[in-house]
Design goal:
The complex is a heterodimer of chains A (274) and B (249). By secondary structure, chain A is mainly α. In chain A, 84% of the residues lie in helices and 0% in strands. In chain A, helix 5 packs antiparallel against helix 7, helix 5 crosses helix 8 and helix 5 packs antiparallel against helix 10. The longest helix of chain A has 39 residues. The model of chain A has no long low-confidence stretch (mean pLDDT 93). Chain B is α/β, with parallel strands linked by helices and 249 residues long. Chain B has one domain: Rossmann fold, CATH 3.40.50. In chain B, strands 6-7-8-3-9-10 form a 6-stranded mixed β-sheet, with helices on both faces. A 4-stranded antiparallel β-sheet of chain B has the order 2-1-4-5, covered by helices on one side. In chain B, helix 3 crosses helix 4, helix 4 crosses helix 5 and helix 5 packs parallel to helix 6. The longest helix of chain B is centred in the last third of the chain and has 18 residues. The termini of chain B are far apart. Classes of the chains: A mainly alpha (274), B alpha/beta (249).
Amino acid sequence: MRVPQELEKPLRPKLPGPLTAFVESIGAGTIKLMTDVGGVTTLAWSVARWTIRPPYRLQNFFVQLDFVGVGSIFIVALTGLFSGMVFAHQSARAFQIFNAESLVGPTVALTITRELAPVFTALMVTMRAVSAMTTELGTMRVTEQVDALETMAVNPIQYLLVPRVLAGLIMVPVLVMVFDTTGMAGGYLIAVGVHGVSAGTFLSRTQQWMEAADIFEGLVKGAVFGLTVALIGCYKGFGASGGAKGVGQATTEAMVASALSIFILDYLVGITLH
Amino acid sequence: MAAQKMIQVIDLHKSFGTNYVLRGINLEVETGSTCVILGGSGSGKTVLMKHIIGLLKPDRGQALIEGEDIVPLGAEELAKIRMKFGMVFQAAALFDSMTVYENVSFPLREHRKLSEAEMRRIVGEKLSIVGLQDVEDKYPADLSGGMRKRVGLARAIVLDPNIVLYDEPTTGLDPITTEYVDEMILDAKKKLGVTSVVISHDVASAFKVADNVAFLSEGLIVDHGPPAQMRNSQQPMVKLFLQTWFGKN
């Protein structure tokens, strides 16, 4: 019997060419991105629904306020102090070229309140608190603690996620204010103490150029970033699978997605407010 | 008169993507009895159990608890149904940030308005049923695997449920602890009168605790009945599985 020619070939999967592989990787990445954005949005809706339903778990909420907010004060304050110092130093050096050192104060103030404070604060909270959130929730998921909650007729979204997301939403703007304060203090120390800008000029020019809206912009950004990174951390942790490796991967993905979201949202919120 | 059915599973199908896990399960568990679902790894035992307590929704079919189909129920109605259940997880699933007392009292805090003294009394009582004393202040990490399972059972029965589900209760335990866990399951039935569903691949334990054994293979219950009847099953898969314990004769 004659064997058809195609059956004579060895059974080997056909490998995609480089162009096909490239297009496939873009497609797979796009699908994953869309899935994640959809998942986070759906989770946000669930969290909103479970936030307004009793029972209100105040103890869990205060524990998370403490963890996300109080626990981050020191590192945010320190980040703010040094960011203000380095920004004042670089600004003063640049403005000295034009004999415009009087502008160091408002430049530092506007940059910190509008941009540096919300972005750096959200990044620090992501690194310190959201990473812990993702790992904790992921571990609870893979060790069936989340299933255990459900079998005990306790909604895990309400019990675990609502307090964490609300803590992110509320505490990041509070931490932004801490950053604003220490950042301005650091800027003042370097501008006045090192570069010889007069204290009166630094303060009066800052007062002249800065408005409440600048501080408000930073706080709005802080709330948006805090909400987003907490949702991403919860989404990735809650969806973790595959043991310790899966939890590690979920945490890595949460960190990358949170950091990217902060920068993208910084631009989007910035142009929306102006 | 026919015995009352606590759990009925009717023509249950479930697939995850292309993985067709349950292919039309039919199962009945009588009130107050212990049903052991035997089967190899990956046969769909845990998936079936998660359908019984409503953690998963089937693609098709029904899961009835005391005659009520839980498949179409929403989160709030399911929460009410779950009050009838206690579940002991394979690795106990204790909350590792809480002490033993906090773990066992957790369902009481959530669903009963009791004083701390009353909760202490109930927790102590349930811990003594599972043979544990003076462990209330310990964390799960300080306990052995067998002790964690016993704490898991104490937590599962703290609200006096009608049904207790055991997910592979003897997996990974030494023979003495396995014996103890078997006794614990029998005691829970005798002292509390609960209906139990045990999923396992431990033939010895299954035949010790079961009133009925159902054998799950490739997504189907291929045979079921009392242990003595199952011992003589003519189903090839059941025979092969039981030979591992009872030998070829």
